[in-house]
Amino acid sequence: MNRPRHFVLTGLFTLALLGLVGRSGYLAVTEREFLQNQGKARAIRNAEIRAHRGVISDRNGDPMAVSTPVVSVWTDPSVDRLDARELVLVAELLDRPVDGLMKRLERSKHTQFVYLARRVSPAIARSLRSLEIPGIRFKHEYRRFYPSGEISAHVVGRTDIDDVGQEGIELSMDHVLRGVPGSKRVLTDRRGQRVRDLDFYDAPDFGDDVELSIDLRLQFLAYRELKSAVEHSGARSGSVVTLDVTTGDVLALVNQPSYNPNRVGARDFDGMRNRAITDLYEPGSTAKPFAILAALETGTYRADTIIDTTPGYLTVGRKLIEDPVNRGQLTLAEVLARSSQVGVAKIALGLEGSHLYDVFHRSGLGSIPATGLPGEVSGLLTDRDIDNPIVRASLAYGYGVTVSAMQLAQSYLTIASGGVRRQVNLIRGLPRASEERVFEESDVASLLRMMEGVASSKGTAPKARVPGFAVAGKTGTSRKVTSGTYDDTRHVALFAGIAPSRDPQVVVVVIINEPLGEHVGGGEVAAPVFSRILARSLRILGVAPENLVVTDRENAREGFDRAA
Amino acid sequence: MSGVQVIGVTDDRRGLFHELTSNQEIQDRLLQEYSRLLLERGTLLSYQNVDRIAQRRLNMRFPEQVTSVVRQPKAQSLAQYRNIR
User: Fold this and answer.
1) Which of A55, A216, A556 sits opposite B47 (nearest CB)?
2) Cβ-based burial of A430 (10 A; exposed 0-12, middle 13-18, buried ≥19)
3) DSSP-derived 3-state class of residue B22
4) What is the pLDDT of residues A375-415, one digit of tens each?
5) A548 touches chain B (CB under 8 A)
6) What ipTM was predicted for this assembly?
7) Measured between CB atoms, which of B31, B41, B62 is closest to A52?
8) Collapsing DSSP states into helix, strand and coil, what is residue B34?
């Protein structure tokens, strides 16, 4: 035996061993924290727990936007290899062609993340999971559904694929609807596959629900009637706004064209515009009631004051204002009912410019409606050159001022509420601006009586009549401006109305943009829409018809007995 | 003494954590059910649906003009009404 060699070898091994023990002791003592963190970083991850987005509902609690849990299926082609048999199984369950999946995997074989399917139902995900194919991974997400679809697409808006609000209420109330995702600590294996949950850090904070003032039933009615009217008249677009008089709540807000928010990736920008709040039109004759109101405020005019419109035209400066025919002597009420340009111009010329502007301004024209929808416009109302007779006369019959459908509704709300300026609101539970009396009750009451005449057989809109109810309103037909001048072939037909006129409950504004054909006037195109929407809306709201004969049952019995 | 407590607390924690995980799964399932039911209710109660069923299946018709309503008598007059009969 070679003793020296034995000792040398033993010594060397012992030294090596001591070295290792020493090193590990050194690491365990001095580098402990660093090494532990490194180990955790490789095996322990923070995973996000997605938070549920709040529900958007109408005033009766019917859902307008709901998030439902869905599962996205993905794989990591750089480490997971799915064989052909597995792919066929997966494709079958996902109801997708196999070769499509294969191609997609082939294309992205050098990436670390590829979706096999996005947003499949949890039931499909469960059966996929039960196949226990390694490399098939699942990501829990939420998908937004809009049960009322295109009917309320513009109000509700929509979210993008990552559940972030993009338009409408989804955008403006995103901070309320959005939840705060929670996080948990999970143990993962070498491939990043979740092995088990270790610990919860934060529970997800679910988003809050938002309740709108919309009544889906009225919304549907308004949409149906507007759609058929726009199709019928060949118009380019149209909007309807319905307001509740006592609260200022927006009961319906619809536009044509619209789009289906449930379709992912729709790029129909024309249909996506919320025209009722973004598109501006000159109100035309729908502005006349405010000129009449200004006349009433002076105290020198009454409903039966005679205004002579002979000879049916009037020159102001270099401008000719004319009625279709010479209407002769009209009362103030008739000027409104028959929408005489000459009559209103004459009245406006006799008024102080600043007073006329002030009445328009007080009614709410020219100021932002502040419903909480994104993209609202204020419209244009200015007192520039108001002392110029042409400007003053034009303003009185609704030119040189622009409004959106919502704004026009807002200003009619001021009349309907008996002269109280009321904030319109779309989202329930938000603080409201205080109300303010801006017109004398007696002036407004007298104006309302005059506006009833519009829907009479002698007025411009007998088609606005609603069986069983007296309505007040005003038609409007304005020409559109193209390249700086008014175009005689392109019109906007408007009707703004209040019902029932003796006890106002709702304000409805109908705007039809560029109707084609023979009849392009507000009385022919917009007024029938108003009438059809109101006939059913008032019933849904439970407003009793005015000519109702209420009989007690015993009396009715007597009546029946006698009849028998 | 405190060493024994640490063991007990850790065990409790493990139990509670398990409970939390399973509760969270239940929550997820219920949420799914809730949103499904909400959507279903929305569809069934929609004006379109009610309108269609009323007209097609129940042969109901929208009243064009209501002119008279027979009102339920008040409780007192109902009693009188019964006495008379």
Assistant:
1) A216
2) exposed
3) helix
4) 898 888 998 899 899 999 999 999 999 999 999 999 999 99
5) yes
6) 0.71
7) B31
8) helix
Q: Which of A470, A469, A452 is nearest to A460 (CA)?
A: A452
Per-residue pLDDT tens over the stretch A466-486: 988 999 999 999 988 877 888
**Which position has the token pair 């509740």?**
A244
Q: Give whole-number Cα distances, A319 to A322, A393, A487, in Å.
A: 10, 10, 16
Residue owning tokens 């006369």: A393
Buried b vs exposed e over A200-236: b needs ≥16 C-beta within 10 Å?
beeebebbebbbbbbbbbbbbbbbbbbbebbeebebb
CB A369 within 8 A of CB A425: no
Residues of B with Cβ-Cβ distance to A549 under 8 angstroms: 67-69
Q: Does residue B43 belong to the interface with chain A, where contact is any CB pair within 8 Å?
A: yes
Please say whether the beta carbons of A487 and A481 come within 8 A.
yes
A152 in active site: no
Between CA A149 and CA A262 the distance in angstroms is 7
Amino acid at residue number A545 = P
Identified catalytic residue from A285, A394, A404, A411:
A285
